[in-house]
From TrEMBL:
Protein name (record): Cell wall invertase
Keywords per UniProt: Glycoprotein, Glycosidase, Hydrolase, Signal
Family the entry assigns: Belongs to the glycosyl hydrolase 32 family.
Record carries keyword Manganese: no
A molecular function GO annotation: hydrolase activity, hydrolyzing O-glycosyl compounds
Signal peptide boundaries: 1-25
SUPFAM superfamilies assigned: Arabinanase/levansucrase/invertase (SSF75005), Concanavalin A-like lectins/glucanases (SSF49899)
Amino acid sequence: MGTPQRVLLAPWALLAVVALQLAGASHVIHWSLEAEAAPPPSVPASIVSPLLKTGYHFQPPRNWINDPNAPMYYKGWYHLFYQYNPKGAVWGNIVWAHSVSRDLINWIALEPAIYPSIPSDQFGCWSGSATLLPDGTPAITYTGISRSDINYQVQNVAFPKNASDPLLREWVKPAELNPIAVPEGGINATQFRDPTTAWYADGHWRMLVGGVRGGARGLAFVYRSRDFRRWRRARKPLHSAATGMWECPDFFPVSGAGLENGLDTSEAGPKYVLKNSLDLTRYDYYTVGSYDRRRDRYVPDDPAGDERRRRYDYGNFYASKTFYDPAKRRRVLLGWANESDSVPDDKAKGWAGIHAIPRKIWLDPSGKQLLQWPVEEVEKLRGKPVSVAGKVVKPGQHFEVTGLATYQADVEVSFEVSSLDRAEPFDAAYANDAQKLCGVKGADAKGGVGPFGLWVLASADLQEKTAVFFRVFKDGYGKPKVLMCTDPTKSSLSPDLYKPTFAGFVDTDISSGKITLRSLIDRSVVESFGAGGRTCILSRVYPSIAVGKDAHLYVFNNGEADIKVSHLTAWEMKKPLMNGA
């Protein structure tokens, strides 16, 4: 390793630190980064390039991060706690790192908030949630590891040492209360974790804890309390399904169909969302349904449907958490995206894991699924724009969007298909496996209507390119069926990378031929939103040529029907004030 180098803060960053210190934040972290070292011979130099480290997604300067924990809005500040290894770029030594923000985009790091310090978390502080009590005081519930031999999991509670501190810098774990829930009554102690934000109804608080029964049936245990201090498990779970272990459950009310305002977790909603992270597949799934407060039971609107049908994101997105933002009356979703290179690569880079851009979520007009869109604050980072309008892309053609740096960009485009007559017949064998269909019919596989979309992080000679595209089929009744894919199979010339195609079907009416796409491009991540946020796909890529100023952006059409770019605007994206922890 070279001589440690201090990070020099730009004037605006210094002002932010001063502002925090004026607010009483004496423990702002000033990171000292080590000089870049040569990678081990087995790791390509391109993998450790600083140009692959994200510019505007949440990411600490170094080391491992995973689940977002206990996001909340408190006394004018957004708080983000998250799983963090202060000692390396692999999972382990987990503490709750803590960052604060005024706008969900510009973040300032504080000292870790929760770390092993009591018998019931002495071997680890895993994921959890935050709840605001009636007097406005926040409480954190989280999973602690009390035995290291089998990762014995219990639930704990912590309260702020000084609730008048808007930065919530110190937390206490009352010895007389912890643990508040233990795996008794036949619960698998190694699969009992991740308490949710609690909600209050009929004189009791309720929270959920994820688990499994019989090794195969995932479920959400219900715990009740009158005072948020002593908890008892309900006889029956809120809901269960034969899906395998449920991690990081989340349960919240939503407003009526098509209404964008969010609801506090304790408010009664016309509909509810139950989400679970499946340890078996490493994806986040959700259903929309009804909640019986008297019986503490949840019933999906389509109880006969597949519990794994709908996902927040059809790409690299896991262990997500939502919170209600009272400042803007919205529900906000945060999620973790792991790396898709190797562990030796991560060690050589010195960092692993990012968070997706926070998303506003609400129920779509049909009432059947959620819509997701990047929070409006990210648009503050938009810089130089370039626009294209009314351009027709003939079959087999493409064109480059020039005039801006596209390795860190926000792209919004509206497509119009000239005719759906050439849409390919849909093979019903892929009805429940969009990802497999995308693997068979990727971006370079010629089609009828599509594939059409964007090549992002592409090299000038197109040796490297990541495709984000649509493809339209016709089902057995002649109805259009839209597939959205991210195809990174040609994203990098670096060897030994995991480059899976990701895909989801888009529940949208394309009979007019119109469909929209938005892609947030950030060096080693491509986060895309199809048809106004009906289908979302996040993918990690590691180009070796198409990095920095050598990254290009194209619109392409590999179908047989003309595609019109009704309107496209691409913005260069600036770096936020201080990104990460």
